[in-house]
Amino acid sequence: xxxxxxxxxxxxxxxxxxxxxxxxxxxxxxxxxxxxxxxxxxxxxxxxxxxxxxxxxxxxxxxxxxxxxxxxxxxxxxxxxxxxxxxxxxxxxxxxxxxxxxxxxxxxxxxxxxxxxxxxxxxxxxxxxxxxxxxxxxxxxxxxxxxxxxxxxxxxxxxxxxxxxxxxxxxxxxxxxxxxxxxxxxxxxxxxxxxxxxxxxxxxxxxxxxxxxxxxxxxxxxxxxxxxxxxxxxxxxxxxxxxxxxxxxxxxxxxxxxxxxxxxxxxxxxxxxxxxxxxxxxxxxxxxxxxxxxxxxxxxxxxxxxxxxxxxxxxxxxxxxxxxxxxxxxxxxxx
Length: 335
Ligand code: UT7
Hints:
By secondary structure, the protein is an alpha/beta fold. About 30% of the residues lie in helices and about 25% in strands.
């Protein structure tokens, strides 16, 4: 019998209605559309507005849409994994809350926090549960309300991030499609360049941490930029070599959307052209755990069964990796 693989059998995305554009940001901090566009490629980002609304609300919208689209009853889901760095609360897991909001009752659920790479770590984890033969319908949802940890007085970070969610259905297959391989790495030394200083066990919230604005993202942009390009490119090239994928034959690269210049440099180093790369950073900015499913969702109609696709991400930790998969269906959702 052929090996059981996990195939992505459906995809859905959700971005909240409110659109924050570069001109509005220029009224909040000392920046301008020209700087943001040339340095990051971002034009707009979506922001979740509304008292009491959190990551689970956008995550639940993505999962609800996915279940409808794939004609799947919530009762049939075995496992839900949520990747996020902006959980609704420290505990319980946001995955638990999303499952409750969409009526998933017969499953277990947990969160993965690997910053922007959480999305690919979660897809690999979901795939391994399926490959074990024990689980059939696994949902991965990457969701972040980045606006909850962005300092809108810091022009170096507030222009980058946005809120969104993307969800995928993964199911077993014995056909020659699905997730073929993944390579993941982490280096905790990188934490000094990108982290949130307060709110954890080392520095719990206090009046002082609020006064010193330590509950927001701290990022040394240039250092992160250099690592992001070299690590995403190196690991994607390693994956292509391992599976004898000619750069010209790769159907799609789906890179984490952190900065257009990072994406273009990664593609150049891999020897692929820009039209092989999914890019939607101009609309959503960096949505952390949601960038990859959001891209695949927007490109779904163009995808063909058997397409060779590489997903790659880099994020805080540092964490990074690549997944090689063969797309499992033609056009819009196959069910
Ligand atoms: O997804 C998680 C991983 N994160 C990333 O991958 C992010 C990686 N880093 C980046 O994308 C870029 O480093 C940034 C977009 C964050 C910054 O771009 P940069 O080209 O590295 O700019 P920089 O930090 O070197 O700053 C260049 C100049 C500075 O001014 P001086 O010192 O040259 O006078 C900054 O103060 O640009 C200034 N600057 C801005 N100017 C206008 C920084 N932010 C802004 C801004 N508007 N928003």
